Amino acid sequence: MPAVKEAFSRLWPEARLMNLLDDSLSPDLVEAGEINASLTERFCDLALYAKRTSADGILYTCSAFGPAIDVARGVVGLPVLKPNEAMFEAALDVCAALRRPGRVGLVSTFAASVPSMRDELFSVAESRGLAVSLSVECPQGALEALGRGDARTHDLLVSAAANKLLSCDVLMLGQFSMAHLRGRIAEETSLAVLSSPDSAVHMLKQAILGQPAT
After folding, report:
1. Quick one: how many helices (H) and strands (E) in the chain?
2. Beta carbons of 84 and 76 less than 8 angstroms apart
3. If DSSP codes are grouped into helix, strand and coil, which group holds residue 133?
4. Same domain, yes or no, for 91 and 72?
5. Residues of the chain with pLDDT under 50
6. Which of 18, 58, 55, 60 is nearest to 35 (CA)?
7. What are phi and psi for residue 30, nearest 5 degrees?
8. H or E element: which one contains 52?
């Protein structure tokens, strides 16, 4: 949530934020091994609750639940963004400017999120008629370090993982908790580096107000 708040404060400070948290969803997904009907229903419940509070739009922030978010979007009838769809579009914009298939890099500290993110990226690329490849690095222990309050170790592991993807054209940071490293990694790698919160704020403002965030 801090990464989202920081992005909104810079790019759309007029927006009023409300945070809904179910911190058992990620461990429940790991235990279940797949996005089942029960998990999907919980995403719909969160969306419907947000709608009852008069929310104008919804941004989900866990990248492992793309299919569940698709269902919630159909149920709630509001602008609803997956955590990374705006970032994927921005990455594909970089690839579209190339005269060859684009090479996309992804750093993810939550390995369970990678399959749905890969499927989503390739689906969007196919819809745009783009050929891309995806290289993934999952720095082991980074998320656990962050969970115990060791941000320094988390950041070092993420940075090291990003530096393994130097052959890519564009690099995506797959979790919101990595957003603060975007500038540092861009400087270290000399790559175009994208973070989910900034891209999402731009797209959500466009969807709700018809104007981009500045």
Report:
1. 10, 6
2. no
3. strand
4. no
5. none
6. 60
7. -60, -40
8. helix 37-52
Domain interval for residue 79: 2-83+199-209
Query: For position 103, which CATH number holds?
Result: 3.40.50.1860
Q: If 0-12 CB within 10 Å is exposed, 13-18 middle and 19+ buried, where does residue 160 land?
A: middle
The answer to whether residues 95 and 105 belong to one domain is yes
DSSP state of 24: T
Do 107 and 70 lie in one domain? The reply is no
Same domain, 70 and 139: no
For residues 106 and 174, the answer to whether their CB atoms sit within 8 Å is yes
Q: What is the pLDDT of residue 2?
A: 87
* Tally of CB atoms within 10 A around 95: 20
Three state DSSP letters for 58-81? EECCCCCCHHHHHHHHHHHCCCEE
User: Which residue has 């419940």 as its token pair?
Assistant: 45
Work out the angle between the directed axes of helices 66-76 and 114-127 (0-180°, nearest 10). Answer: 60
Contact criterion met (CB below 8 Å) for 99 and 78: no
Pairing of strands 102-107, 170-173: parallel
Q: Residue 79 has which token pair?
A: 């602008």
Q: Are 128 and 59 found together in one domain? A: no
Measure the CA–CA gap between 4 and 177, rounded to whole angstroms: 9
Instruction: Count the residues in the chain.
Output: 214
Helix (H, G, I), strand (E, B) or coil at 15: coil
* Tokens found for residue 115: 């399959």
